[in-house]
Amino acid sequence: MELRPYQTASIDALRDNFRTGMTRQVLCASTGAGKSVMAVELIRACAEKKTRVMFVCDRRVLVEQFSRHLWANEIHHGIIMRGHPNRRYEPVQVCSVQTLERCESWINPDLMIVDEIHAVMRDSLIGFMRHNPHTKIIGLTATPYHAKLKEHFQGIVNVVTMKELVDTGFLVPFRVFAATEPNMEGVKVVAGEWQREETEKRGLQIIGDVIADYQKIVNSVFSGNPQKTIVFSSGVGHGAELVKRFASIGLNFVQISYLDNEEYKADVLKEFSKKHSSVDGVISTDILTRGFDQPDVAHVVVAKPLRKSFSQHVQMIGRGARPYAGKEFCVIQDNSGNWLRFADSFDELYHDGVKTLDSDADKRTRKEKTEKEKKEARCPQCMQVWTGKVQVCPTCGFVREKKNKKEEVAGVLTELEFGNKTKKEQTQHKEWWYKQLLQYSRGKGYQDGWAYYAFNDKFGHFPHGYKKDTAPVGLECYNWITARNIRNSKRRKLA
Predict the structure, then answer these.
(1) pLDDT value at residue 110
(2) Is 50 a member of any domain?
(3) What does pTM read for this prediction?
(4) Residue 399 lies in a domain
(5) Which of 63-67, 106-110, 213-217 has the weakest average pLDDT?
(6) Are strands 155-157 and 111-114 parallel, antiparallel or unpaired?
(7) Alpha carbons within 13 A on the beta-carbon side of 362
(8) Alpha-carbon distance 464 to 486, whole Å?
């Protein structure tokens, strides 16, 4: 199994921290970054040394899913779960957190890897950690915002950002449409979030708009051809009504919820995973936010308003970020207001990642955007989200009028980028890249012309007038060079 550079760097960082005496770490990586791949590599190394290791998931279906990953890599293991043979003699075991609750008295691994650690920080796991202080623990998550993580874990490893993954082609970019959203004014708050029943009622009021917005986006972005879609609803009743409305336009959307048995949910997702599936879209409230890996999903509809839970927001939109053959981007259709509500937090996560475990991203109540701010944040013609610095809509070509001027602004259609930089900042950023490319080129014994043409591949123009100083090659630059080399190698083979 060949690891990506950042995956190797992440594993090395975890091992280095263990050598310093650290016993509990959080491995943070975006959805699609390959946390399961890194876990398999760690487990493979443990299995070779006969080190006892336990992998813990939060649902039965995820236990069986990870087991398939292990068998695919020829790693023998046992599954501690009803319906599976007893193989407790194996040094590698996979179980659910529910099993851990019942069996913690005899489970005593040297290393425990816990999937989606932000979702399973319950008393049983905390109790296990207290009674087994010498067991090394790695928690996997894309959103390490649970308050108890800081209390029970000593450090975080976050080697690669979402932006770096997009830049290197390991994730696809988002195209965001801020569509019709429910009015949440006056909704009761329970435990920091809007009350589910009332949220569902508000969501039902815009059912027709969700479908109309969906059709509008399909026509303008996908030339009238619906793509595989997942929908996050506000509740089961809301989801059932959405199923009916999608059926009215000739599309087969299926809802899965906590009311369904595991076999039914597994069957739905198995059919949905087929290339030519009879299921056009799947609807759920929470089930699809964790452990759902369907790379050909290109349209995500978020119709579940969130008040504080940034973690859920990131998990939901991340379901469409995985690359797939022919997939250039993922459309986020936001019928919840979440995108604008969490815009600043997401921009920070996208560019910088998470460096500490004391983030308050899930604790802050975001200030609601004013109607003026909402209006300015979206194209009035197609709903595409744009920034105040973008004058031409990247989707439909609508031209924004300059303030106090009734004149059209000429421009070239460009894809929205999060956190647009000033011209000066952009120039400095490009110069920094050129310095790194020169450093790499000279380190390999190449001519400076290699960096010159590599820069053109990256930015679409040559670095005329840039100084030929060098700078240490960072991970983002290294990953991009690696991806470029792989791409060029494939092209040469095809030639």
Answers:
(1) 92
(2) yes
(3) 0.74
(4) no
(5) 106-110
(6) unpaired
(7) 19
(8) 27
